[in-house]
Design brief:
1 helix; about 400 residues; four-stranded antiparallel sheet; mainly beta
């Protein structure tokens, strides 16, 4: 019997090989499906993010002229109190008490007190309320009262460090005093200002560490005003220095009404028509001087930005400029009208007078320019897009800017 010839192009497939081939083909299809699904998800996510980003930019870079009242929180004494921004909430203070108000209008805490002329100072996580012309200073954290300070002489001005160290200019007919206290009321530094050497203290500010003290002095020489800004270091850098003075800057024929510390060991000296920016945690050195052709009308600032309102050349006209802490100009805008209130919170500048309000962002966007229903006592930002809290004589209103 003749044997069959084998075809070399054919082979016998073992039974166990066929399921493996099908399994590999199925796994490849699943892998390709997952890959396509991931690509579709990424494309959809990119589209959604682009739409959200576009919507956010449209909402935040648009200029509004109308505001809608979302919620009204009625209460007593709104018009008889003063306000400042503290820990994304509103610190309310008056002769009879101090309270912290949440954005929903509810009190976080309330501290009764008796102050004849309260004034406030806020630095990051700490706030202080002092009785101007009196002898009491109350120091607060977000959870309430941290300590009380009683001075021996009348308080003219205070400064505050984030950790609760308070520097105070105390009035004295012979020699005014600059005294530093901790939040418990213990005296840390006591320095009598000398009219002969420096002049009368006009303003004071204290660094984040509490070691560096900046004081602006003024005196009259030959019928001309002279100013001197003195830096005292009460840490190691000032131990071997006379009176702990590590640096002094003089200003001829102009008053220096304001000095303040910003973030990143930045110090700012404000004259009548110039701003000097210094840097240094131990011995500050001048980094930049910004001179203006017009006189400075008012200053506002936060930890990162400085806002300057300049007197305009035309009647009723002014100029608003904003700078970074390094002295870089962010924008310059001219505007008409008088605003007695100019504040800065979280990089936004708020100007208001009566029921008229104007808001600028750090990018130079004129976010809002219009009139509200009631006369404005204070305006503060609120979490969310285009949302703000407005204090009026009778209530607190949550508003949203609308087209």
């Amino acid at each position: 019997m003749l044997g069959r010839k084998k075809n070399p192009l054919l082979r016998i497939v073992q039974e166990e090989e066929q399921p493996d081939a099908q399994m590999q083909e199925m796994k490849e299809k699943i892998r390709q499906h997952k890959k396509k699904f991931r690509i579709r998800v990424m494309i959809c996510a990119a589209v959604v993010l682009a739409v959200l980003a576009g919507t956010y930019l449209l909402l935040t870079r648009y200029s509004y002229k109308e505001a809608r009242i979302v919620e009204t929180y009625n209460g007593e004494g709104y018009g008889q109190s003063a306000y400042t921004y503290f820990r994304n909430m509103i610190l309310k203070y008056s002769k009879d008490g101090i309270s912290l108000i949440r954005p929903d209008g509810k009190e976080a805490w309330n501290q009764p007190c008796q102050l004849q002329n309260p004034m406030a100072e806020v630095r990051q996580e700490t706030a202080a309320i002092a009785d101007c012309g009196g002898n009491d200073i109350l120091v607060f954290g977000e959870s309430g009262l941290k300590g009380e300070i009683h001075t021996t002489k009348q308080i003219e001005k205070i400064a505050l460090s984030p950790k609760g160290i308070v520097a105070a200019i105390l009035k004295d007919e012979v020699s005014p005093m600059i005294v530093c206290y901790d939040s418990a009321g213990n005296t840390l530094v006591e320095n009598k200002a000398s009219f002969k050497n420096h002049g009368y203290p006009v303003d004071v500010s204290i660094s984040d560490s509490g070691e560096l003290l900046m004081v602006s002095y003024a005196q009259v020489e030959n019928n001309m005003i002279q100013s001197r800004v003195v830096f005292y270091n009460f840490g190691k850098a000032g131990q071997d220095k006379q009176d702990h003075i590590v640096e002094t800057y003089s200003y001829e024929n102009q008053l220096v009404p304001s000095v303040f510390f910003m973030a990143k060991d930045t110090e700012v000296i404000v004259g009548e028509h110039e701003i000097t920016i210094c840097r240094g945690a131990q011995k500050p050195q001048v980094q930049k001087t910004i001179s203006f052709k017009k006189d400075i009308k008012s200053i506002c600032y936060d930890d990162n930005y400085i806002g300057v309102v300049l007197k305009g050349a035309s009647k009723g006209g002014y100029e608003l400029q904003m700078y970074s802490s390094a002295g870089k100009q962010m924008f310059s805008k001219e505007f008409q009208g008088e605003f007695s209130n100019v504040k800065m919170y979280d990089g936004e500048i708020f100007m208001y007078e009566g029921n008229k309000c104007s808001i600028y962002t750090k990018d130079g966007i004129h976010r809002f320019d219009g009139e509200l229903i009631d006369s404005i006592v204070a305006v503060f930002p609120e979490p969310g897009i285009n949302k703000y809290n407005v204090i009026t004589a009778n209530s607190m209103q949550e508003i949203r800017l609308v087209k």
